[in-house]
Write a structure and sequence with these properties.
It contains ten helices and 17 strands. It has 363 residues and is an alpha/beta fold. The chain has two domains: 199 residues, Medium-chain alcohol dehydrogenases, catalytic domain (Quinone Oxidoreductase, Chain A, domain 1), CATH 3.90.180.10; 135 residues, NAD(P)-binding Rossmann-like Domain (Rossmann fold, 3-Layer(aba) Sandwich), CATH 3.40.50. Strands 3, 4, 5, 8, 9, 16 and 17 form a seven-stranded mixed beta sheet that branches. The chain starts with a strand and ends with a strand.
């Protein structure tokens, strides 16, 4: 089948829309016509010169679309189903079968290599050369994707499908970290470092569970103001020299929960030091350098834990978030700005500049 996709051929180059050939679906697969796909900072990883992803590559891992073809022996879906696409997992290893697919034994091969475990030529260019198209099992910066059925979540057809893709990763990560991984509870205190799509999703989830104080730390005043509208009770300018003192003051000695979405070691140190004894810090951002912690910081029962995908089961969490959205309690759509897929390079530029929180590309 002939499709079009945004192909990255050089770590420092531009995405270019190309005519490509997509192979037929096989057992356990779906072909999905992409209606919208979120742009996430994780999509920038193949730009790192030392990153192990295969190039050329089609990225995109927050897709939503309509099922157009179903592989033989693939139950649970019908032609025309509306689906949100999330991360891929084997569904057979110990972590998968115990409800933690984000920690699948093959997570990095399936999601971050671009080629997937099969290493097959899913998409080829006009010369017959393969293009990596298994980024998070979907490579959704294209008009169509062939995906594993297990990383597709059916949603009601009356929902605005074009904006639902970010639920499959960024929004799921932020909200799931609060609701599932850390189990933030009513009356607790939560500090969120970084008011991007992941951080603001955590803020909204904190409000849903009834956290007494939700503090957002960021450098962007517009995003800080939006976080107040979405559920934060306090905001702090991250450029201040007294951030830690202010956090301890607001939380009366320290928060029970902190979340870092930046990956910046100095910010992580602040997030850990802002905890009260027995508090927990969740790390969501891609690590940007070595992290050194004073062991005395952890000696009073503090915990630091990495979190992937909010430790969520997408088929469980995504419908829950959509129901909260229907109720007006999780207005994730306020973070979204739409771009045509042909403007993917502008969407990336606006993301890096902090001008757009969550771009959604429309093929």
């Amino acid at each position: 089948m002939q499709v079009r996709g945004a192909v990255l051929r050089d770590p420092g180059g531009r995405y270019e829309l190309e005519d490509l050939t997509l192979r037929d679906v096989r057992a356990g697969e779906l072909r999905v016509r992409i209606v919208g796909a979120g742009f996430c900072h994780t999509d920038l990883l193949p730009r790192r010169p030392d990153y192990a992803a295969s190039l050329p590559i089609i990225t995109g891992h927050e897709g939503a679309g309509i099922v157009e073809a179903i592989g033989p022996g693939t139950p649970g879906f019908d032609i025309g189903d509306h689906v949100v696409l999330s991360f891929d997992s084997c569904r057979a290893c110990r972590n998968c079968v115990t409800g933690h697919p984000a920690y699948c034994d093959t997570f990095f091969t399936r999601n971050l290599s671009g080629a997937g475990p099969e290493q097959d030529a899913l998409i080829t260019n006009s010369h017959g050369d393969p293009v990596a198209a298994r980024w998070f099992g979907q490579s959704s910066f294209a008009t169509h994707s062939v995906v594993t059925a297990t990383n597709a979540v059916k949603v009601d057809p009356d929902l605005p499908l074009e904006i639902l893709g970010p639920l499959g990763c960024g929004i799921q990560t932020g909200a799931g970290s609060v609701l599932t991984a850390l189990r933030v509870h009513a009356g607790s205190t939560l500090i969120v470092f970084g008011a991007g799509g992941v951080g603001l999703s955590a803020v909204m989830a904190g409000r849903v569970v009834g956290a007494a104080k939700i503090i957002t730390v960021d450098l962007n005043p517009v995003r800080l103001d939006l976080s107040l509208e979405l559920g934060a009770t306090h905001t702090i300018d991250g450029s201040r020299d007294d951030v830690l003192d202010r956090l301890r003051d607001v939380t009366e000695g320290g928060a029970q929960f902190t979340l870092d979405t930046t990956g910046v070691p100095s910010v992580i140190n602040t997030a850990v030091n802002a905890l009260r004894p027995t508090g927990t810090c969740g790390l969501l951002g891609v690590q940007q350098g070595n992290l050194t912690l004073d062991p005395r910081v952890l000696a009073v029962g503090r915990t630091v834990t990495g979190i992937l995908e909010g430790d969520a089961v997408p088929q469980v969490l995504i419908p829950q978030l959509l129901e909260l959205w229907r109720q007006g309690r999780f207005p994730f759509d306020r973070m979204i700005k739409k771009y045509p897929l042909s403007d993917i390079n502008q969407a990336e530029k606006d993301t890096l500049a902090g001008e757009t929180i969550k771009p959604v590309l429309i093929p």
